[in-house]
């Protein structure tokens, strides 16, 4: 957990431990805000994973500068994105269930901290399999693989291991 992630962890914990959180979480605006902080937690990491296809795309289009990628380069025009292998709503659901246990929240965030660079074509695969905002049926935190959606959608057959160093402001 780097300094920004430590700060985001504190914000996430403060939100979920707010008095009357259950009532507030029913409001779309509050829920969206929490999920946004959860997503930003992983996006604050200094490195992101890359698939073979996304690395080839980054190299072919000369998006890497001295082996690093500026976060702000991501766009529809540039045909790649930063994707959370476990959607933030799934992570949020697990955090809310464990909201009074700070150590468990830290464990959830650490275990799910796997932002991966995908090409636009790879990212489109989630829609075909109806896995844009959810994990495969029956998937469980800590016992199943974080990249299960990627396997089901044919994005990869093994966990991505190549890491790209990221620079610049967080982009969501």
How would you sum up this structure, described in words?
The chain has 172 residues and is of the alpha/beta class. The chain is globular and about 50 Å long. It has helices spanning 3-16, 21-25, 28-43, 52-60, 88-97, 102-111, 120-128, 148-153; strands at 47-50, 64-65, 68-70, 80-83, 116-119, 162-167. Helix 1 packs antiparallel against helix 3 (28-43) and helix 3 (28-43) packs across helix 5 (88-97). The protein has a 6-stranded mixed beta sheet with strand order 2-3-6-1-5-4. The protein contains 8 helices and 6 strands; from the N terminus they run αααβαβββααβααβ. 46% of the residues lie in helices and 13% in strands. Strand 2 (64-65) and strand 3 (68-70) form a beta hairpin. The mean pLDDT is 96.
Cα separation of the termini: 19 Å
Summarize the amount of helix as a percent range: 40-55%
Q: Whole-number radius of gyration?
A: 16 Å
Number of strands: 6
Count of helical stretches: 8
What's the arrangement of strands in the largest beta sheet?
Answer: 2-3-6-1-5-4
